[in-house]
DNA sequence: CGTTAAGCGAGACGGTACGTCTCGTCTTTCC
DNA sequence: GGAAAGACGAGACGTACCGTCTCGCTTAACG
């Protein structure tokens, strides 16, 4: 009846502070060294922890970095500004700010690259990062519909498809602007982007 | 008009066939092993070449992979279909097809991740991949303007900004759909995406 | 009376069998390949040990070979034959027999050559090989003096000088005969050599 | 009219100065780097010569070093001092002086070590160095016999054996003193050594 | 309140790849 | 055809991390 069937009853319990220390050390190492020069031995040393402790909790570098990076995106939130355009602009700016931090840059793209050859890793990324933030799209649209800015959904499947499309466009465009074009996703750019997206949404919704 | 002004006159010249063999071997290794398990020693062996030959021509794994991946994108071309929407759909489908190949997936994201900590690498990516393909946006727009689908440009700076924005949106969205969401950028998705983008472009151009 | 005062208390202890296996593998490699073609990677493989284990215990090829060769000379012993001449002949024959073995030949001269440019290596050779065998000279002389074959020492400094001289002459002559002249240090040669040396010792002692 | 019967008639003749430059460069490299860190590429550079030129004239590092070192010993000569003891002391001092030079130390022992596994190299050493200097023993003995210090030879075979023995003792002892014991073969040591050797020779000759 | 069992630090272990160095050969052009 | 120049295939170098494996200690829950 227990939710965790393999709960260990005996033995010394795992240190409760170690996890946070390790994730923080991982982010610090990402900032200093970047993903490819980050080593688990170094992370362990920074966290004041033995390498074995680290391997007991994460399968490897990729899983560790996913968890370390995922925490960064949890601070995203809808501004609740009263208009869809402003909501989008607000979230995109927050997203761009996070992507500007070196621990996010370095780590996120690397684990995405790794995930192209590791199905379990891709699933972990979706669970920990992507799906968790997709709430912003859903909530933003719901508010816009409540305000009458967008028509209500009729087909739930089409609704999900559109949400996914918007999420891919928003996240993808900002990432590309920031990491590939390597130009700042500043207010001017975010405004242009939002304008184009909004016009498209409105026109599409109208048809 | 010499491409290499400082051509050495003496000594044995570099093998002219080795470069192509090495880049092909790199792509083969990317397919089989992915970026993180690709080793330069293995690439050299596959190419039938000594490791020193490889290091004589590329500074490291990143530079090599950039060159190997860049060649993949050179096959992109505008369909010349007669309408902007069809042109966009055509190019996006081609782009998605290339991104679906494992050598592109694995290599491209990895070098972008690496480039977040290596300015020279980022420049190489821009030169070899990004700027080279930006031609598609420029040419597509020019054709659309010639056909009267889009108004002619007045401000050259705004024109460049818009081209960059569109490029970031197209490339970023397809990459995100393919690699992060890990869902196929098939005809249905490409059509929805193109519709949204086109509506936005038309509405923006109208205002 | 602990030999290593700073014994580490923590961590996995070093394998106790590895040292002997490595030294034996080193001697086997010396026999097969000689010093200049001996590689540490090959020694590690022969010993069933990782290269890192080898480097953790020895600074390099030279130190390793010194230790491997030093063990060979530990089997030397005074015959206790009852006369100085017979003792000398006995030891010289044993020494020549060891020097005839390829692992000794190849290794000993090479590390001596290397030691001309490495003070620490020279010290290691003296400690591990030279000084350790000088006991034979001292003990042989002491026995001869006890038997009345040689007069007792009066000046301790002159005594040490003479012991060094004899050691250089014995070791040097046998090495030169064996390795440079490359002729066997057989019984006939050893007998002639011993005669000449004995005559010189007696005459010098008499004066 | 050419002195060399197989003189090449066509093409560019070999540079006559290159050989001397290469041997000098070899000695300079021995002084700076020692045998084990000396590389043929470096020697070629120092001599202002291409690596191919070097390989055209010597089979490898060992042969080159033998030739470079052999020249050093050609300056040895009998002092012609009028007594056997003084002749021996004189030659031994000269020999010790040469062995004290780093290019001799480093090179000589190394090629001897190499020669333990290379019959052709050993022959080259004997021809170029050992046998060439054995003249000193023969000439010194002949002069001593002419002066009546030593009895004339009767058995030519025994005569050769004794000359070899003395050569091994002289060369071996000085080498061991200098390189293994690493103490200076100064006048005091040479005097003691010569005394011991002379006494032995006289006593042996008398019996 | 002592047993027990997992967690912990430390660090050695067998591996693998790194990027560099030197080898001895080969292939150019110049003389 | 010799020489300088330098690229070539080969392979060892010594280092850095990998992920695993002892070790000798905590440190808590259970009995």
TrEMBL record, chains A, B, C, D:
Gene Ontology molecular function, alphabetical: DNA-binding transcription factor activity; transcription cis-regulatory region binding
UniProt cross-references to SUPFAM superfamilies, sorted A to Z: Homeodomain-like (SSF46689), Tetracyclin repressor-like, C-terminal domain (SSF48498)
Protein name: TetR/AcrR family transcriptional regulator
HTH tetR-type domain mapped to chain residues: 16-76
DNA-binding segment(s): 39-58
Keywords assigned by UniProt, alphabetized: DNA-binding, Transcription, Transcription regulation
InterPro entries membership: Homeodomain-like_sf, HTH-type_TetR-like_transc_reg, HTH_TetR, Tet_transcr_reg_TetR-rel_C_sf, TetR_C
Gene3D superfamilies in UniProt: Homeodomain-like, Tetracycline Repressor, domain 2
Pfam families: TetR_C_11, TetR_N
